[in-house]
Amino acid sequence: xxxxxxxxxxxxxxxxxxxxxxxxxxxxxxxxxxxxxxxxxxxxxxxxx
Length: 49
What we know:
Number of helices: 1
GO cellular component, one term: cytosol
Strand order of the largest sheet: 1-2
Number of strands: 2
Pathway: Protein modification; protein lipoylation via exogenous pathway; protein N(6)-(lipoyl)lysine from lipoate: step 2/2
Shape: elongated
Number of domains: 1
Organism: Escherichia coli
Order of helices and strands: EHE
Mean pLDDT: 88
InterPro entries: aa-tRNA-synth_II/BPL/LPL, BPL_LPL_catalytic, LipoylTrfase_LipoateP_Ligase
Low-confidence stretches: none
Strand content: 15-25%
Protein name: Lipoate--protein ligase LplA
């Protein structure tokens, strides 16, 4: 079993947090378990799976 990598963003910028999420998705191996916690200012994100 692989270890869980916990990443916590202290940014409230939705553009930054979505960019980090995309980078994590593209750069981490598929076998790596990642939990990315982030919180934004009032935001609606549409079209993310």
